[in-house]
Amino acid sequence: MNSNSTPSAAPPVARLIEAFSRLPGVGPKSAQRLTYFMIRMPREEAEALAEALISVKDRIVLCSKCLNITEDPVCAVCTNERRDRTRICVVEEPLDVLALERTRAYEGLYHVLHGSISPVNGIGAEQLKIRELLDRLRDETVTELILATNPNLEGEATSMYLQRLISPLGIKVTRLARGLSSGADLEYADEMTLANALEGRAEVAVDKETSTE
Amino acid sequence: MTSGRPNLFTTEAVVLRHSDLGEADRLLWLLTPQRGVIRATARGARKPGSKLGGHIDLLCYVKLSIREGRELHGISQADTIDAFRNVRTDLGRLSRGLNIGELAERVSVEDAPAPAVFRLLVNSLGWLATTQNADTLVRWFALRLMTITGFKPELGACVDCGNELEPDDHVFSAERGGLLCPSCRSQGSDALHPASLGTIKVLRHLARSDFPAVESLNIGAEERRQIERILRSHTNFVIGRGVLSSAFLDEVRDWPEVGPVPGGIRAD
Ligand SMILES: [Zn+2]
Ligand SMILES: [Zn+2]
Predict the structure, then answer these.
(1) pTM (2 decimals)?
(2) Whose CA is closest to B100, among A146, A120, A132, A121?
(3) Ligand 1 centroid – CA A80 distance (Å)
(4) Who has the most CB within 10 Å: A206, B91, B187, B194?
(5) What's the topology of domain A66-203?
(6) Do domains A11-59 and A66-203 have the same CATH topology?
(7) Residue ranges per domain, chain A?
(8) Quick one: B197 and B178 in the same domain?
(9) Which of B41, B62, B83 delimits the end of a domain?
(10) Could you give the number of structural domains in chain B?
(11) What is the ipTM of this complex?
(12) What is the pLDDT of residues B12-52, one digit of tens each?
């Protein structure tokens, strides 16, 4: 496929290189490196890896409620009695759930769209898990929907689209604050980020006792 | 346009398409004035705090420093000239912006200069940010784009026999590239689209005018429908397939204006 793949490699080797180069973020060079690493791998390790791959395919399903990936019909978040069932946070990908869970700052439920609206790639609302979200909003007692799509044009488009669909249902729609990322220099900030940060500015609370010094 | 260092050039560009690359990089399809469509990587652009990330979102008009590569170029610096904020914060404008961006990309070729297409796109995105007639803009854009790339539909005379058209209703054939007189319309088996006298007048006006001159043109509903069908069939025929972003445009076309969801808590 690619001019960099080894034309002289034995068929099984070429097949593995080809398989690796289909992975996201793996170019032909890395695919070759991974392949030759695996050729030197002990047989047990290779079998464990193959088995892990198969079991992911066999045992991982989408949670029937939030559509996150899970081993059970309903995932651990959705079955957890202590989660706040009045809030749903909408994200693009399962990895976004992991990122939000790591903060330990959110106790509500999730909904994974599995992508964002991308008109130039022909991806519209019907390819995302939006109908499933509407079903949940109808069947469950949700009072707030938190939009946590990516802060880029396609993520914004997805959020605006959902807001349009869901606001008329009388459910409060909110979104993650956008603005400067911690550790970034103001001078490098782009126009959109700065404008958003200005829009979302908050009053600085001055602590009287410490400011008298 | 090359700077002192070899292999480095600066260019203006509009970001038309992107895909994820590696752990945190992005691959961009850019429309540039001197090199047409180029592909370039933006390292680390998906990480928060990336100096590149915020500048190179879709439909951003940017100035770039680029390291020349054999297959892919690499972006070393990006500065926003205009992010067309009003376009990206409204679903209706955004769907039209993506549509004209996709059209511009489809008629452009890799590494072939396209200064007129580039200027047309930048100007049109600027107008799109403020106009109240975004649909007229999209139609005007399509017609102008076809004209400057050499695919102007024939609107004056019959495209087959060359005879002057009577001031009357006629039909349009994308396959033959223009309007047909009554005697030529029955020759051939191509799809014919009705073009009323009113539609033909509007099309001619759009084709010879700059956007500000047609912006407030009052176009009737039936004319709008006919013009939409004619221009779509024509552009689809020229670029060889449907325009992917049209489906989304059609879905949100008649939605009331939808702005961005405000940050923080919203009570209503
Ligand atoms: Zn779940
Ligand atoms: Zn004729």
Answers:
(1) 0.84
(2) A120
(3) 9
(4) B91
(5) Dna Topoisomerase Vi A Subunit; Chain: A, domain 2 (3.40.1360)
(6) no
(7) 11-59, 66-203
(8) yes
(9) B83
(10) 2
(11) 0.87
(12) 999 999 988 877 889 999 999 999 999 999 998 888 778 88
pLDDT above 70 as % of chain B: 93
Where residue B157 sits, what CATH number does that domain have?
1.20.1440.120
Q: Which ligand is nearest the CA of A89, by number?
A: 1
Mean pLDDT of chain B: 90
Give A15 Cα–ligand 1 centroid separation in angstroms.
Answer: 36
Contacts of B72 in chain A (CB under 8 A): none
Structure-token pair, residue A12: 């099984």
Whether A130 contacts A117, CB under 8 Å: no
Task: Name the CATH superfamily, with its identifier, for domain A11-59.
Answer: RecR Domain 1 (1.10.8.420)
